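Subject: complex prediction, re-run

Hi both,

The earlier run crashed halfway through, so I resubmitted it with identical inputs.
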Amino acid sequence: MNGVHDMGGMHGMGPIQPESDEPVFHARWEARVFAIVRAMSAWRKWNIDASRHQRELIAPAEYLRMTYYEKWHAGLLELMVKKGLVTREEIATGRASPATLPKVQPALTAEKVAAFTAQGSPTNRAIRTPPLFQPDDMIHTQNINPLGHTRLPRYARAKRGVIDRVHGAFVFPDTNAAFQGENPQHLYSVRFCARELWGEQAAARDCVYLDLWESYLEHPGANNNTRRGN
Amino acid sequence: MSDHDHDHDDRHHAPPSDLALRVAALESLLVEKGLVDPAALDALVDTYEHRIGPRNGAKVVARAWIDPAYKTRLLTDATAAIAELGFGGLQGEHMVAVENTPKVHNLVVCTLCSCYPLPILGLPPVWYKSAPYRSRAVLDPRGVLAEFGLTLDPETEIRVWDSTAEIRYLVVPERPAATEHLSEEQLAELVTRDSMIGVARATPAKAQNSA
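This time it finished cleanly. Structure:
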């Protein structure tokens, strides 16, 4: 979606404000939100792409006002309600409805946190299809404006780039975020000249690399307008 | 961290005053429902406050500085090379290391959210997650670096890495001059978080206290 989260290339956001000796968390509630979101992810009722998309759905003015962990909190509430883990009434009252107790599976325990963190959730997948592109191939990015989640930022749409490396096949966020399947595709590191993205104001030598899925890309000769549908 | 330190940017960093209460209420609700174990939450917080942080990444960089074979492995298969030192996992499942040289400077950002290589750098600083950095790192990297006090030669090529997938990036900063006498542990002390994001160089040796 063309949301305010897609910030690459925007002006007017003000100066960068580094903080010396910054603490990991600025308040206890931030730490608790972080931990709750991580612990709730262990139920596997949603995935990382759905989590990101849920935060993108925060209204733009709110998104810009909110601190980082406020967004995590807001996104978590929506996902939990969507997946039936809590009701809005329970959130409002802070009390569990007797009908929803207890869970059969145990929650993530302290003993399992180390393994949970060390293992992570790899998103590479084996697929049979060979990659369509190879390093040094010229590509053209699609001009897409989907309502749902995508990892092709606006600033890199309908641009020419060069394949830098082939990462292998990875879960496709655009469908995974909508719970429409992992549909793994080949993922590429694509190099764009800064001037292709930003025009003559950019330094001639500079470049930007993005990790882009195969369906975001086409051969330079292909016509965008004839490729819709698949 | 006191509220005073945030006075300058209240516009972006002042959460509603009842948020702490709402989060506490949410936690007790989820505990009551058996959805979270408070001891697991404590362990998660402890992991990122005390066990995982930029010292991990600094060890990787220091090893790469002293061991050319390791550096080759790091630049070829960063996930495996980083795992050699015991680091990896959540949000570092798929790593790529990029090397700064006199001619090339690398800078990492996530314009779409705030992706960051947690196992080697810990949780990201607020500025990395903020709109000013996310919006301008790709558009005006030289301006962004200047804000961090880093002015590069106009002939230097800047490569900005926008973390749009699940690949996480580690910048291997240039080894500072006159550090031949330092041990691996002393070298690691020169490797700052910011130098591994690409907004700073590694700390010069002379600024280093003898360890």
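Chain B touches chain A through 90 residues (CB under 8 Å).

- K.
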